Amino acid sequence: MKTVILSREFWLAAIVAVMVIATNLRAPGFAAPDKLAGIFNDTAMLMILALGQMSVILTRSIDLSMASNLALTGMIVALINAAFPGIPIPALMLFACLCGLVLGAFNGILIWLLNIPAIVVTLGTLTIYRGIIFLIAGGQWVNADKLSPAFVQYTRIEFLGLPALSWYAIVVAVAFFILMTRTSLGRAIYAVGVNPTASVYAGIDVGRTKFATFLISGLLSGFCGYLWVSRYVIGSVEVAKGYELTIIAACVIGGISIAGGVGTVAGALLGALFLGVINSALPVINVSPFWQMAISGAAIILAVVLNARGEKRGSRLILREAEATS
Amino acid sequence: MTDITHEARHIPDRLESPLRGAVFSWPTLLLIVGVVLFIVNSLASPYFLSPWSLSDATFNFTEKAIIALAMALLIIAGEIDLSVASIIALASTAMGVALQFGVGVPGLVTIGILTGLICGVFNGFLVTGLGLPSIVVTIGTMSFFRGISYIVLGDQAFKGYPAGFDYFGQGYVWWVVSFEFTLFLVFALLYYVLLHHTNFGRQVFTIGNNPVAARFSGVRVERVKFILFCLTGLMSGIAAVLLTSRLASTRPSIAVGWELEVVTMVVLGGVSILGGSGTIQGVVIAAFIMGLVTFGLGLLNVPGIVMSIFIGALLICVIALPILWARMRRRAAR
Amino acid sequence: QEKIALVVKSLGNGFFDAAAKGAENAAKEIGGIEVIYTGPTSATAEGQIEIINSLIAQNVNAIAISSNDPDALVPVLKKAMDRGIKVISWDSGVAAEGRQLHLNPSDTNLIGETIIKLAADYLPEGGDVAILSASSTATNQNAWIDAAKKILPEKFPKINLVSVVYGDDDSVKSTNEAKGLISSFPNLKAIIAPTTVGVVAAAQVVTDSNLIGKVNVTGLALPSEFKQFIDNGSSQAVALWNPIDLGYSAVYLSHQLIGGTEAKPGAKFSIGKVGEITLDDTNSAAMAAPFTFDKSNIEEFSKIY
Amino acid sequence: MTLPQRKPESMPVSSTPKITLSGITKTFPGVRALHKVALELYPGQVTAVIGENGAGKSTLVKTMTGIYQPDEGEIRINGELVTLSSPHAAFKLGITAIHQETVLFDELSVAENIYLGHALKTRFKTLDWAAMREKSSKLLKEIGAGHIAPDTRLKDLSIANKHLVAVARALSIDADVVIMDEPTAALSYKEIQDLFELMELLKKSGKAILFISHKFDEIYRIADRYTVFRDGEMVGSGLIADTNQDTIVRMMVGRSVDQVFPKQETTLGENVLTVSGYCHPTEFADINFSLRKGEILGFYGLVGAGRSELMQALIGITKPSKGAVKIGEDIAVIRSPAAAIENGIVYVPEERGKQGVVVDMPIVQNISLPSLRRTSKNGFLRLAEEFALAREYATRLDLRAASLSQNAGTLSGGNQQKVVIAKWLATKPRVIILDEPTKGIDIGSKAAVHAFMSELAAQGLAVIMVSSELPEVMGMSDRIVVMREGRIATTIEKNDGFDAEALVRAAAGIGEKAA
Ligand SMILES: Nc1ncnc2c1ncn2[C@@H]1O[C@H](COP(=O)(O)OP(=O)(O)OP(=O)(O)O)[C@@H](O)[C@H]1O
Ligand SMILES: Nc1ncnc2c1ncn2[C@@H]1O[C@H](COP(=O)(O)OP(=O)(O)OP(=O)(O)O)[C@@H](O)[C@H]1O
Ligand SMILES: [Mg+2]
Ligand SMILES: [Mg+2]
């Protein structure tokens, strides 16, 4: 119990709740269930992406190409849908996942086999993937009129009062929770981030684990590629431009340490939710949306400062008393 | 084997001449790439080889390259600053605000540069004072600085910069040589000396290679890093003056997305993203290469986004090829 | 061979693609003209500046630009003019010192009035409306909004403009801003989006939020992109001029400038089959009145542009 | 020199080796860590592997657990040829190890540390946390570490407790071959006794055990066989019962022990360093000692006694909570290594690769680093001066290198250590602190370092030498401070005569009530 109260996630959840309640005081109706569901739905993609990024960051890497991967995959499925409206959407979703997976695998291979730092590889693919969008689409956008109604509907169908998009996020979150806490791969991801040397000793293949995380982040980016185009009903070169840093920001706010090995699924979700709530709350309490950027920046800085507090104390506790009282 | 000879044994200073080392170095490789690109460009477009064209081409990268010089030092020391583009926005906004109060040209320039420096101090304090990882800190300040700019400006733009202010971004020192470009060359020289010929530069390398050993050896690691953040902020402030002058106006969305281009330039210049190695020569040549690629393709009316494929591929290739090459040689040696 | 560059706010936007089509038509009619259709991928001034630099180097004869920023482009366009290149702006203008003439798609005041009227026609009792614009620096949108604000108290006293927000011609931002409007103003009756990107985003939000019939979306829209929203009732009517004609006219004007016609107040220019324009004292001219699309005619026009 | 003949083995009749290594060779750049090594482990028996620091024991362990791939040689299990391509392959073949460095995961829980890499699964192939917690708890109790809760995060444990977790981890794998690389080094008396009881149990259950320790009493207490390594070669093996300590020591070092330590007699001068009432919140407390000119002050203790932390506080790396340091007669406030250098105190750190050399920079730049101010002018580098300085000290220390522009990382361990020492001597210090100065360096270099240390003292430098090697401290020191668990246990003057047993007792806290 005590550990729950002391955990970052608890505090972050508390802060998000306080924000919702405070906004509701200023603008009654903000915390109405349907409004909250709306915020959740708006944040769904960021959550999915933050989870993917989390798995990468946990292994001391970073994936800057997620947004480009998303945009490219989104464009590919949009073009396919425009050309062959008959292809069933679930098949198209699977295809989007596959596309994302391939793009992620390209990053992963370079990182695994050539040992190039992830930040360099993904900095390169960040621009490459986005450039390819322009090539395959011939510079055109895919607009609402070219997409089939089913394509657009598959994020909107309601089930138990929540749109499909929200359900996708819930399913991914649950799957991720199981992956991170109940499977060997999940624990290997943590282990590699905490101590790569010790991981080797424990029989974990560090390179392959990193590769796996890039597959995960790629797959989720690809999936979100479909979701994005379906939700905003547009495929263009500009889709999700600059979003890679928002994804990382969500992770950082969620307490995922850039140094690897530290962070939870709940943290990533809450980090995304935090940004989502700020987005929705500002216009409602009549703060100009122009404040939003500065506020989320300040939140990131604050989150990093607070997280660092909890992590300090690298000492080894040689004195017996020190260990006893810690 | 285990006997101890006490006769003095001579150890030569170097086995090969420094010149030989330079021939097989990263900057040389880049230089070759640059020359090839230059030739390809002049063959591909008849307009390329005109002094005015080349001069115009420099405008596309000088501001970024000026920041890249300081960023190179920062990355060599094992840190990174992703907030540089936002510092430009904030510094430009500060100049715009000052303009509303009727500040003159010298005042505007001072305020722009000073704002950059203050942002650098802020980053530096967060990273070295509080011991936070620079990549996330500067992702935070990236939103924060630009956010302030949005708060101040909202949907407005500052314009009407006084006569004379346009010189920094649009003026020419001599014939086709622009002020911006001259400034860049001067800074390149200064940073070259700073990094490669001073104690400070040596300490930067040491910190990047092994911060712990550097600290144990009496290098004031935090202070050096702090100075580097300040320098990066300062250079961003200078870039803000140039860009504001070139655009003759300020908007909060100015220079959006530049941070990654600057980092790309530095990494392409052969600076190890993990810190510890790199040269200013490399960064300068990388800046030219990026300028050449974008301008050359621009002359063929290839959209900018397609050029970025080249840059991205170049980045990965120049990093991957030496690794593959070394691996193949090792395999051949077996 | 004359080289005329048609520089647009961003590539891929259907409105500009249609304009490019018109430009090609004009080039064919006149003969001996090469049209370079170009623009950045994101609607920024820096992107346009880089492009103009390379156009200057290519010695194009004229640049016809729809600008992302009226001020930031002035220095580089001045440079172009100094090197003997004719510069006109169309659709979204540049400050007077950065171009030789400006072609408004329509009279600014008329557009301002039209966008309000489109909303007011379906609000006999009046009510709250909001504007979702493109980027905050877009010259044309700002001018229309100003005109609209001016005309409101006189002609539409019952219409209450509650907010102006900016979607930057970015679908996601426009979507979020439209959502923000709906949640901040529960009594909102109409969203006016004088931009083809914003209007689609707003209509999609209204459709998704089950507000069809409660919130009417209107503004300036390309019939082909917008047809489904007229069909599903989220919008009653939108307006636009003919982008094909706009691109067509831009090339005609550029061609005449290259030919030596001087751009000065009162000068007359022929724009082929579209007709003739006369420059006013700011060296700008306006084309026809915006055309309104509703259920009756959208089907037909959606096949054209 | 003559080596003792390998004894004809009087093998117990029933026993065939569980695992057999033959012809194992492993080289690292510049170091031949193992050369044609052969080893056999028998079920139900403990084989002690003995050898000096750097003899190659840990490298052998790593080749047996699939961490390193040998360059040559073969490994057989129950007579069958196997390849240990990865640590995982080693698990599968029933080999488990406690490594010398506690290679564990600070951020993860104790239970997870124990089961990572071979986790228990539920029916649905997901991790079975409940079972892992329960079994960890049981395992920890078995090794006498019942006080460690399976849910604690590892980083909240002391080094001794971490080591116990490492032991539990090794035993959590149901293996036939159990390797223990200095498992007792960080443990206190009672914990060691618990461990030995456990080893007896393992022996009874037929496991083949490899045991590495530098402590002969332990070897005699638990081992059945021995194998001696020297410089990466196996120089002898046999039954413990058939041999004695002297023979083994002679095999280990290949010469008689005392000639290794050429400490010159020096006359001690005035006090140069006085430390009083020095405390740190978690690492050490109540430290008082003084150091005289020309003196070598030895600091002895078990690994993890807090000596390195103390020394690092003295040079301003870590912050003490109270206490005073006097240099000569003046109180000195040292908040950073830079300040320490100004005050004439320098520290040759223990972790050479991490804290000492900058491996990717040339020797010359390594040596000049703390003296940059002297070799430069107005902040601008002067390469000629730098090379001159480096050349002077490289020659004095008899550095073996191809050129001064070679990266320090390409040197052998001993020569790297010389670079580090050269770097510090170049600052012309008054007090030099050497933390484990001969750790992991070959015998020849070791002797050179010892000779040099003694020469420094003779020249009037005050030397503090931290060492965990008994013969070294006893041979080199004028006075020995023994530390245990962050406090000074005792200080012994040379005149009183150094007694190895007394030192070990003081360091391990034997003879007191177990805490
Ligand atoms: N990864 C490595 N790279 C280079 N050299 C190494 C490496 N690991 C070990 N060595 C070298 O191999 C030799 C044998 O080292 P090893 O760790 O096996 O010694 P050891 O017998 O375990 O010593 P100790 O008693 O100090 O633990 C040493 O000279 C060491 O410096
Ligand atoms: N709590 C710990 N967790 C992990 N590793 C540790 C811990 N304490 C020490 N070590 C490692 O064990 C090795 C020896 O530790 P070290 O004991 O130097 O500590 P110390 O207190 O300075 O003792 P010594 O008296 O042996 O110098 C080092 O490599 C160190 O990194
Ligand atoms: Mg060892
Ligand atoms: Mg130590």
Automatic annotation (TrEMBL), chain A:
TM regions (residue ranges): 36-58, 70-87, 93-113, 120-142, 162-181, 188-204, 210-233, 245-278, 290-308
Predominant place of localization: membrane
InterPro entries xrefs: ABC_transp_permease
Annotated keywords: Cell membrane, Membrane, Transmembrane, Transmembrane helix
Domain of life, source organism: Bacteria
Subcellular location: Cell membrane
Topology relative to the membrane: Multi-pass membrane protein
Protein name: Rhamnose transport system permease protein
Highest classification ranks of the organism: Bacteria, Pseudomonadati, Pseudomonadota, Alphaproteobacteria, Hyphomicrobiales
UniProtKB/TrEMBL annotation, chain B:
Keywords: Cell inner membrane, Cell membrane, Membrane, Transmembrane, Transmembrane helix, Transport
Listed Pfam families: BPD_transp_2
UniProt keyword annotation of RNA-binding present: no
Transmembrane segments: 24-44, 65-91, 97-122, 129-152, 172-194, 226-248, 254-275, 282-299, 305-326
Bilayer topology: Multi-pass membrane protein
Domain of life where this protein originates: Bacteria
Major site of localization recorded for this protein: membrane
Compartments reported by the entry: Cell membrane
CDD domains attached to this UniProt entry: TM_PBP1_transp_AraH_like
PANTHER family in UniProt: ABC TRANSPORTER PERMEASE PROTEIN YPHD-RELATED-RELATED, AUTOINDUCER 2 IMPORT SYSTEM PERMEASE PROTEIN LSRD
Assembly behavior: The complex is composed of two ATP-binding proteins (LsrA), two transmembrane proteins (LsrC and LsrD) and a solute-binding protein (LsrB).
Biological role stated in the UniProt entry: Part of the ABC transporter complex LsrABCD involved in autoinducer 2 (AI-2) import. Probably responsible for the translocation of the substrate across the membrane.
The protein's name in its UniProt record: Autoinducer 2 import system permease protein LsrD
UniProtKB/TrEMBL annotation, chain D:
Superkingdom, taxonomy of origin: Bacteria
Keyword Ribosomal protein among record annotations: no
GO molecular function, a single term: ATP binding
InterPro entries, A to Z: AAA+_ATPase, ABC_carbohydrate_import_ATPase, ABC_transporter-like_ATP-bd, ABC_transporter-like_CS, P-loop_NTPase
Cited PROSITE patterns: ABC_TRANSPORTER_1 (PS00211), ABC_TRANSPORTER_2 (PS50893)
ABC transporter domain residues: 19-256, 267-510
Cited SMART domains: AAA (SM00382)
Keyword Ribosomal protein: no
Transmembrane annotation, as ranges: none
Keywords: ATP-binding, Cell membrane, Membrane, Nucleotide-binding, Repeat, Sugar transport, Translocase, Transport
Sequence similarity: Belongs to the ABC transporter superfamily.
Protein name: Rhamnose transport system ATP-binding protein
